[in-house]
């Protein structure tokens, strides 16, 4: 789609709420606009559920607007109560900064931080230096406690207890927007829809302090058609860090999506043109797998690069397609001590160790249901031991259901 990137975002299903749709559409049509999204450092990696705001940033970046990815090492010290029924764990500053470095590297793959069209900042650089009394006088006086308590993020927590430190979070996020407005001429803040109240607080603060109009936009918090949160599986989160989730497993996550989600996911998680998506989502029956492969390849290419995406696609074809038996070197692989294989390992234990099942209990249930395989042979008994005799020239191939696969090879000295 050519023209205003706001229309592109709207057509792809990115937009949940906008402070002033006409104003935002106009500013993005005139450009370039400096905008930002904040990412708190609560884990060493973002996951697939974080990709909606990341992809929105990438669209605006491609359209010539100036992106600021704000690493929230400062705000993470406080903890955002939004969407949480319990207070977040208090992390050390060293841990938080380490997480921030990892998250920055993941964002760089989508945004290409060149210091001009896209830059990365860290709010610890100004928040940790604030004089608290001065901050209360200059910023806190503009906030109504009654209005803050009416916000959904705080109402949810009031039942179980909202700590005073968390109560400060909205002030700090609003101050971030004011700081970026003053120092970077940032006039648009975006984020997930659970951040709407916090973002509007920044819009209001800038209006009160600087007498300027800035804008806000949020994105829907997507779920699968089955109601699951994006980026969550029975085995855990689908991390953006290759050490936590291999390119193959990331590719397979998208291939495994519900048929009903393919068109929506192609619009949000790839740059595939809308007319091509319209063609792909009309496919029915087994032909829908073509659309899933396009989705998986394009999403994996954005995160891990084209070479890794090609390798993941080849491995998936080797495991499940007509090319079975070829290119198995690309499969997720674990080197296992030969002496343990000689002695024999319970199938439920081995499937759980390599992450094909979430627990031994789940593995045993899947065996009883006929869902686990070794070298394409169904495992018939929960007592089955997997041994060195199950190793072939390519190792031992474990499958859970139709989609999940892992290769076991003996450790070499």
Structural summary, described in words:
- With 413 residues, the chain is α/β, with parallel strands linked by helices.
- The protein has 3 domains: 215 residues, Rossmann fold (3-Layer(aba) Sandwich); 84 residues, Tyrosyl-Transfer RNA Synthetase, CATH 1.10.240; 78 residues, Structural Genomics Hypothetical 15.5 Kd Protein In mrcA-pckA Intergenic Region, Chain A (Roll), CATH 3.10.290.
- The strands form 4 sheets. Strands 1-6-5-2-3-4 form a 6-stranded mixed sheet, sandwiched between helices. Strands 9-15-14-11-12 form a 5-stranded mixed sheet.
- The radius of gyration is 24 Å and the shape is globular.
- About 1% of the residues have low confidence.
């Amino acid at each position: 789609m050519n023209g205003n990137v706001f229309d592109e975002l709207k057509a792809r299903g990115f937009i949940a709420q906008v402070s002033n749709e006409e104003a935002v559409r106009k500013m993005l049509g005139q450009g370039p606009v400096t905008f930002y999204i904040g990412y708190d450092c609560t884990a060493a990696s973002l996951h697939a559920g974080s990709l909606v705001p990341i992809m929105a940033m990438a669209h605006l970046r491609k359209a010539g607007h100036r992106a600021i990815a704000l690493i929230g090492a400062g705000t993470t010290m406080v903890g955002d109560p939004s969407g949480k029924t319990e207070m977040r764990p208090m992390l050390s500053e060293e841990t938080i900064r380490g997480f921030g470095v990892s998250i920055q590297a993941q964002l760089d793959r989508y945004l290409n931080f060149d210091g001009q069209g896209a830059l990365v900042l860290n709010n610890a650089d100004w928040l940790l230096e604030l004089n608290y009394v001065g901050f209360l006088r200059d910023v806190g006086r503009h906030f109504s406690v009654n209005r803050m308590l009416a916000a959904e993020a705080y109402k949810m927590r009031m039942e179980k207890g909202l700590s005073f430190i968390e109560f400060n979070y909205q002030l700090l996020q609003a101050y971030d927007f004011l700081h970026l407005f003053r120092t970077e001429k940032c006039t648009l803040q975006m984020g997930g829809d659970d951040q709407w109240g916090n973002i509007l607080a920044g819009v209001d603060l800038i209006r009160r302090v600087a007498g300027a109009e800035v804008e806000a936009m949020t994105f829907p918090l997507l779920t699968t058609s089955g109601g699951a949160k994006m980026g969550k599986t029975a085995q855990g989160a689908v991390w953006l860090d290759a050490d936590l989730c291999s390119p193959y497993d990331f590719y397979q996550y998208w291939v495994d999506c519900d048929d009903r989600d393919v068109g929506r996911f192609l619009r949000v998680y790839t740059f595939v043109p809308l007319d091509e998506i319209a063609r792909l989502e009309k496919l029915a029956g087994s032909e829908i797998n073509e659309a899933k492969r396009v989705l998986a390849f394009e999403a994996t290419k954005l995160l891990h690069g084209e070479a890794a995406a090609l390798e993941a696609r080849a491995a998936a074809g080797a495991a499940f397609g007509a090319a079975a038996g070829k290119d198995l070197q690309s499969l997720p692989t674990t080197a296992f001590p030969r002496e343990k294989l000689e002695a024999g390992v319970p199938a439920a234990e081995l499937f759980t160790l390599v992450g094909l099942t979430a627990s031994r209990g789940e593995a045993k249930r899947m065996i009883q249901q006929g869902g686990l395989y070794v070298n394409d042979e169904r495992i018939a008994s929960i007592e089955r031991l997997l041994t060195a005799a199950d190793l072939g020239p390519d190792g031992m191939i474990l499958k859970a259901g139709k989609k999940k696969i892992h290769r076991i090879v003996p450790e070499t000295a």
